[in-house]
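Lecture 7 notes: from sequence to structure.
We start with the chain below.
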Amino acid sequence: MAKFEILLLGSGSYAFRTMDWVLEFKGFSVNLLGSPEAALEALVKKNYDLIIAKISKEERDNLEVLKRAKRLNPEIKVMLVSGSLDTTFPLEAYQIDIDDYVIMPISTSELWRRVQTCLDGSVVDLVPTQTSSQSVSEIDGLVLNRLVSATSCLPMANTETILKEYAAR
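Predicted structure tokens for the same chain:
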């Protein structure tokens, strides 16, 4: 597999840091940025294959970044990410010609599948490319442990629901 360049544009949330970690483990070159300004600067300096951007009411500037990214590189693939409680999807997003739309949370295997499909239109083997003794199930376990520590400040009912949904994937 060719080493694809991916730009993650998110608020530096735990979910985006986990995505960064998972995609790098899979062998992608990932640049995680938290501001639209930094993303625009990065897009001018480098041609990315895929931009994954968080979309919400608070992060509408990310849509402008996506428009500019498409102008700079019409071949760039675009994946939008939204929180499970954020059901707003602006009309402008349809005009950008997005390639995928993901509602969080998402399992590691589903993330890999969706990213690979965006990049070359095919689904590939989901075995990590890094030489490591860690299997996919061990990686899922590590991500699950990170979710447990990240959700420890949530009410117990929310934590149990999140963990059950993740384990079911």
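Points to note: Confidence is low (pLDDT under 50) at residues 123-134, 151-157. The first strand starts at residue 5 and ends at 9.
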